[in-house]
């Protein structure tokens, strides 16, 4: 598990994450366009090899997520990005993954950045769950988490990425 600099208990997030993501995804799918200027909750995009830096972004109201990467080898792969906001507007989620499970590209760098919220939980995976296979997380030393980004760790990242999951806390206006 990866939780940024002790701000949250990793075990608590491990128990709450599946339920929180399911709620966010269900709400986003059931109520598309609930936030002003909201884009579709799930969007497909191509991850392109060739060594150039590419970005893909989605936003939902005041919150956004941008995935920036560079990859080598193979051909384009279809990936998806899902963004969602909890019913109480307290959490923003961003998930980026390859639906087929494992990517065959070699990622030379990656960074996922959230706008309008601070990361409470994030995890990166070398393989995404598909069929009977399970998610395989990257080792903790392969990536780093700040308040707003999840990115590869230079010299430690082993070039495999198939999924990123971020749950961020949105600012609250107190009355």
Automatic annotation (TrEMBL):
Highest taxon in the source lineage: Eukaryota
GO cellular component term, pick one: extracellular space
Matching InterPro entries: MYDGF
Pfam families noted in UniProt: UPF0556
Keyword Transferase among record annotations: no
The keyword Heme belongs to this UniProt entry's keyword annotation: no
Signal peptide (UniProt feature, chain positions): 1-30
Record key words, sorted: Signal
GO biological process, one term: positive regulation of angiogenesis
Protein known as: MYDGF factor
């Amino acid at each position: 598990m990866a939780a940024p600099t002790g701000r949250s208990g990793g075990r608590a997030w491990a128990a709450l994450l599946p339920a929180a993501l399911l709620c966010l995804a269900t709400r986003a799918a059931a109520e598309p366009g609930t936030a002003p200027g909201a884009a579709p909750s799930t969007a497909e995009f191509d991850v392109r090899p060739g060594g150039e830096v590419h970005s893909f972004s989605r936003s939902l109201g005041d919150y956004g997520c941008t995935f920036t990467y560079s990859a080598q080898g193979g051909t384009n792969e279809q990936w998806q990005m899902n963004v969602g906001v909890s019913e109480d507007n307290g959490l923003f989620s961003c998930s980026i993954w390859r639906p087929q499970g494992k990517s065959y590209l070699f990622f030379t760098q990656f960074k996922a950045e959230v706008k309008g919220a601070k990361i409470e939980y994030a995890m990166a995976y070398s393989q995404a769950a598909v069929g009977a296979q399970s998610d395989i997380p990257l080792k903790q030393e392969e990536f780093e988490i700040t308040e707003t980004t999840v990115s590869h760790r230079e010299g430690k990242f082993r070039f495999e990425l198939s999924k990123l999951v971020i749950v961020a806390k949105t600012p609250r206006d107190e009355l």
